Amino acid sequence: MYEAICKVQITDCYRNKYRNPSTQKYCGVYLPINIFSEYLTSRYEPYPKAVVLKSRFDHQNRNLIVSVNTMGQHRDRKRIGLLTSGGDCAGLNAALRAVVHRADSYGWEVFGISRATQGLMARPPEYIEFEDVSRTHELLLAGGTVLGTTNKGNPFDFPLPDGSTCDRSQDIIDGYHLLGLDALIGIGGDGSMAILRRLAQQGGLNLVGIPKTIDNDLGCTERSIGFDTAVNIATEALDRLHFTAASHSRVMILEVMGRDAGHIALNAGIAGGADIVLIPEIPYTIDNICQTIQGLKRNFATIIVAEAVCTEAGEKVTQTNRLGQCRLGGIGEYLAEQITETIGAETRVTVLGHVQRGGTPSPLDRVLATTFGVEAVDLFAAEKNDHMVSWLTRQVVHVPIAEAIAEYRAVSPQDTLVKTARGMGICLGDSTYYAVDSHIRCKTSVLSQLELSS
Ligand code: F6P
C-alpha cells in the first residue's frame, strides 16, 4: 500500500462541475479517478490503477490535492530531491555532482530543486533533472550553485508583497509529494537546516542534510563546505596587504565575514601571519591593540577582524540600507579611526565581503563536498533520515540534524588555534604583545611575571 499526494489543476470546466451544490464550494470528493489518472500518467506517476483516498483544495482553491492508493504499484527508481539553501559558497556544485553520481550508482534519479525551498513552493514545482552523470565534471569547479539559492523567505513566515507574511510550509510539502520525491537532500547552514527539519517533521518527509557555510559555525561538524575556500581567499588578501602595509608604513585592516563566529579570521590570521586577530569570542581593548602595534618595532602592521566583533563599548557595528535592511559591517573602519586617533598611525581598511563566497572551490572543499555528497545518498539508502553528514576527527560520520542545529559552534577560547595564535605572539586583543627581538614576540604579562619572579 502506498499513498501518494498529487496535484490536479482544476480547469474551469471541472470547477463548475464539481462545485458542491449546497455550500457552493469546490468539492474534490466527487472527482473521479479518470479525470486525474491520465494527468498523473502523463505528468508524474504511471499509476493507472490508483484509487482516490482523500482530497482537498489548496489555499487558493485552484489545485486539488489528491491522496491516492497506488495498489502496490511502486516506482523501481527512487527519486531524490536536492536543494541548496542559504548563502552560496564554493563547493556547492561539487556536492550536487557527488549526490548525482552516487544516486546514479544506486539506479536512482535526482531532481535539483530551484532556489532552495522556493522551487517546491512554485506551481508547477521548479526543478532540473540531472540526467547524464558523465557531463557533470564542470560542476567540480563551478562557484555558486547551479540550482540557485536564497537566504531569505522562511516558508513559515513567508514575506508577501504587501509587507505581511504567511505560512507557506504546506505548499512546500505538497511540492515534495507532487514531484513524487522519496527523499530530500538539503545542503545548508544552521538556519536552513532548522527550516528543512521543521518541514520534514510537519510533512513526514525523508530528509538528509549536508553542512555548508563559510562561517563554519554549524554544530556537530568540524568542517562545512565553503569554509576552506573562504579561508584561502582571506589568507591571500592578507598576504597581499602585508606588502602594501610595509611599503606605505601603514596599519592595514582586513574585515572578513563569519557571522557571529571568528573561524575565518582566526584561521586566515594564523595562515597569513597577521599581527593582530580580532574575533567576536574574545574581548579586546583599543589600548592592547595600539600597544601591540607600537611594540612591533617596525613601521607597519596587519590586522584581521571578524565582521561581528563589537566596538570597545560592546555594540555591534552594522549598516542599514535605504530599505531598512541591516547587515553586519563596519568594524574595520571603527578600529581604523580608533587606532589613528590613539597613536596617529595611518590606517586603511579592506572589507573582503562576498569575494569569500564565490569562485572556484579549493581542493579541500571539493574533497569534502564530494565525500558529503556520497555519504548523504548512502545515508538515505540506509534509511538514516533526519541525519546530517558531518566531518569529525578526519572521518565522515552522521549526526542527528536536531543535535547539529542545537549547538552554535563558535570559536572556543580553549580552541587549539587560539593557543597556536598566542604561541605565535599574535595579539588577540585581550592582552598586549611586543617584539623582544626580531624573531620572538612575547606576551607582556608573561614577561612581567618573569621579571617579577626573578
Ligand atoms: O552566512 C554566510 C554569510 O556570508 C555571513 O558570513 C555574512 O554575514 C552573511 O552571510 C552575508 O549575507 P548576505 O549574502 O545576505 O549579504
For this entry, give a set of tags:
alpha/beta, Rossmann fold, disordered C terminus, four-stranded parallel beta sheet, binds 6-O-phosphono-beta-D-fructofuranose, disordered N terminus, elongated, 454 residues, seven-stranded mixed beta sheet
Walk me through what this model shows.
This protein has 454 residues and is α/β, with parallel strands linked by helices. Helices cover 35% and strands 21% of the residues. It is built from 15 helices and 20 strands. The strands form six sheets. A seven-stranded mixed sheet has the order 6-5-4-9-10-17-18, with helices on both faces. Strand 7 and strand 8 form a beta hairpin. Bound molecules: 6-O-phosphono-beta-D-fructofuranose.
Short description:
By secondary structure, the protein is of the alpha/beta class.
Mean pLDDT: 85
Q: What's the count of strands?
A: 20
Q: Name the bound molecules.
A: 6-O-phosphono-beta-D-fructofuranose
- CATH third-level topology of the largest domain: Rossmann fold
Task: Indicate the radius of gyration in whole angstroms.
Answer: 27 Å
Structural class, please?
A: alpha/beta
Q: Given the structure, what is the number of helices?
A: 15
- Poorly predicted runs are 1-7, 9-21, 26-35, 41-49, 435-454
Task: Count up the domains.
Answer: 3
> What is the oligomeric state here?
single chain
Question: What proportion of the residues form beta strands (DSSP E)?
Answer: 15-25%
Shape: elongated
Major beta-sheet overview: 7 strands, mixed
CATH class of the largest domain: Alpha Beta
Give the termini separation. Answer: 83 Å
